[in-house]
Specification:
The complex is a heterotrimer of chains A (290), B (288) and C (367).
Chain A lengths: L1 H35 L15 H8 L1 H32 L7 H8 L6 H11 L6 H7 L16 H26 L3 H9 L4 H12 L1 H17 L2 H6 L11 H11 L3 H31 L1
Helix pairs in contact in A: 1-13, 2-13, 3-7, 3-10, 4-7, 5-7, 7-10, 8-9, 10-13, 12-13
Chain B lengths: L4 H33 L3 H6 L12 H8 L11 H31 L5 H11 L5 H14 L5 H24 L4 H9 L4 H9 L4 H17 L2 H6 L7 H10 L7 H35 L2
Chain C lengths: L3 E10 L2 E11 L4 E5 L6 H9 L6 E6 L2 E2 L10 E4 L11 H11 L4 H14 L15 H14 L4 E5 L7 H18 L2 E6 L2 H7 L2 E6 L2 E6 L1 H6 L4 H6 L6 E8 L2 E6 L2 E5 L4 H7 L3 E6 L4 E2 L10 E13 L4 E7 L2 E7 L1 H10 L1 E7 L4 E4 L9
Helix pairs in contact in C: 2-3, 2-4, 3-4
The chains are: A mainly alpha (290), B mainly alpha (288), C alpha+beta (367).
Chain lengths: 290, 288, 367
Amino acid sequence: MFDYLEKQLPKLIMAPTAIVMLVCMYGFIGWTAVLSFTKSRMLPQWEYVGWAQYERLFANPRWHVALDNLLVFTLLFIIIALLLGLMLAILLDRNIRNDGALRTIYLYPMAVSFIVTGTAWKWILNPGLGIEKMVRDLGFTDFEFRWLVDPDMAIYTIVIAAVWQSSGFVMAMFLAGLRGVDDSLIKAAQMDGASTLRTYWHVILPVMRPVFFGAVVILSHIAIKSFDLVQSLTGGGPGYSSDLPATFMYTHAFSRAQMGLGAASAMVMLAGVMAIIVPYLYSELRAKKS
Amino acid sequence: MSASTTSHRLYKMLFITLLLVFALVYLGPLYVMLTTSFKGIEEIRNGNILALPDTLNTSAWSKAWSSACTGGDCYGLAPYFWNSIRIVLPAVFISTVIGALNGYVLSQWRFKGSNFVFGALLFGCFIPFQVILLPMAMLLAWLGLANTVSGLVLVHVIYGVAFTTLFFRNYYVGIPSELVRAARLDGAGFFAIFRHVFLPLSTPIIVVSVIWQFTQIWNDFLFGVVYSGPGTQPITVALNNLVNTTMGGKEYNVDMAAAVIAALPTLVVYLVAGKYFVRGLTAGAVKG
Amino acid sequence: MGSIKIQQLTKSFGDTEVLKGIDLDIKDGEFLILVGPSGCGKSTLMNSIAGLEDVSSGDILIDGNNVTDLSPKERDIAMVFQSYALYPTMSVSRNISFGLEMRKVPKVEIEKTVADVSQLLQIEHLLDRKPSALSGGQRQRVAMGRALARNPRVFLFDEPLSNLDAKLRVEMRSEIKKLHKRLGTTIVYVTHDQVEAMTLADRIAVMKDGQVQQFGTPYEIYNNPANRFVADFMGSPPMNFIECVVLDGKLVIESHGEKFELHIAHGERLKQAGVETVILGIRPEMITEPKPHVEGALVHSIPMQVDVTEPMGPDTIAFGQWNGTEVQARLSPEVGVEAQATGLIKVQVDTSKAVLFDAFSGARLDA
């Protein structure tokens, strides 16, 4: 009897986690999905309305602003963070012996909350007292930097803050990748007479492709989930000009008593994340099998 | 390299200069936060964002800690700091323990479907939490845990276990299964093997898991703002409220002091155990 | 007491059948070796005996007791693993005593056992060290000490010497043999090294594809192989397999353009059975330079064109060709030199120990 229990112990240990995951992840996703097909407002109302919420969603100008912003933000964020991270990693690799201090400096922003980041940058980019004033005091009296209150430019402030927070991480990933490049590859290139630039371009960077992909996946994941940063830096404003899907969802589901609509927006967010993660995981699994 | 040594050295100096410039840029916001927090309001209005404070005025700090207004209440950040502590400590402990046992099972005691369970967990690490926000609110209300610290602990444990399990499983996979077989022949059972063989080997990954979880949970805002009520909010929510509450004029120095207070625990953890933190980031995020 | 009876044991992993019906009768105190190529199932069989793997069907009896459903702990078996599997965070002393600790043996008894065992294996000076501070050979001894401390009914050794360098391997081999003589406990030992099998075993079970191909003493296996696989697997350098046409109960060897006849022990039976071709199995040591011998029909003198020689020290292996197949002969070093130089020598072929195999199935024809 005890022997049987002992044999089942591994399964018993995993069971609570498995059940909780089933309910709290997949079950909840299903629940939200179902909710998105109902006309729920303040409270769940289980009346099936088909795709109505999704139609409302995509007819909503604010949602379109959020989607446009997401596109702009994600692209800029990923590209700049990649370039910056790569550049820092390349500069650090082979040039400095004790790079520990520098690496610590580039990475520390990741340790703080996005709320802190947003708060700090909100102050730095403060029109009137922040950078604008500083540059004006230096003599450029006509300098303007009012992005924070400019509906067209607000989204770019989020890019700046997000890049500051996350590029260190990209640097760490690239640095680890660079350090993992087989020395003999580099020596072979040197023997072949390649200059440093060419060595990087033809030999090292191609080997780093998996790191690129990994970084892109993680950065896009961060971008799609961005909520904290927007709330603290711009509050989605001015108006809703710097809204992102995550803040849209929150506002509509909780403040505006539009549960069904909020649920629909959440499902769209999920679809977006899946569109990136699923192919990536699939290709990773295939690579591992071969 | 075939280039001449002087141009080589020039390049190197250029690179180092570039690196240092960037270092200053990265440090910029922290510098601004600190200097602003020690300035008086007048000094801020008239001065330069990059200027050092005239004197080390700590009034903003005491206000941020004990009397600043966060929405309706004006108790400063202190009570919310302790809320965060009360959320973080149990959540980190519980999710680490569960993650360790799960990782142990998934790496050494494979059973039919264990790979599937692991895959499902892994997948769950990637979902945007917006899709579980609403139903979780319902669940907490049903359990009577809405707007409570315990409710937040539960939420963080549930969604943290996926990560901690990932960490421990990937780590334990590296321990040869022959050790388990030897221990079984020696007569050790499931828990005895964990206690005598795996636990002593687990210090590095426990550190990684704890630091990761501590940082994630302390810095969380989404769960905090949705599932807490007045009085039970974590410090991130309180900070956001504080900054967005303007009674009279905006007190930037208080805002900045508050931001530093909120950032301090995770910053200190990072500075003290940074390399484990990095290892946790890359191990948990890159590996599959 | 540690006799083992394995009856009709099968083991499948999913759809793959790894053990296809094993029957073995191991006597108490016997040194049994399981040998075979990778994938033959020997490690799976070993793990099944230990109870680390469940069986799909069949029974395992130790001293007449059916242990098939018992956990490893209850079978009173100790195992030495290929990579030693020492607990890295425990001292040598605790590694040895852990099994006793788990069985709640009194502390005083544990201390005595550890002292005895470490003295026997000459590792007393290592008791406080951790495994990472030990050399490969020392780790091996600690692993053995752990098994000895348990005083089990059966010892299982899973390729314990394959991680050691050649010299250490030879040393440890004789130590294990001495240990067995001294303790008299049943040993089941897995290896892929057939030299180890021949030197250590009381009996050998040669395995292939989940089945026992032959079970017998080293002498039987070597001189009376049950099929071509066993004949080929055991013995280094390996047995020669030459396809020969049967002419009037004698085998035809074509060497250097000429044809020669070989007499064999069961020539008449072969003739009567009407077999036209056979595979002649003859070991290199039966093809030598002309030596003093007892005159008889089974000793022949045949020329051999030598392509390459491999001086081994005590003798030289010569590679030649008969019937279009590569043939290896064992020559004295001097003759070897001559063979390398001239290329054509006369060899003495003794077919008294030769075996015959069916040209298609590889089965023994003359058993």
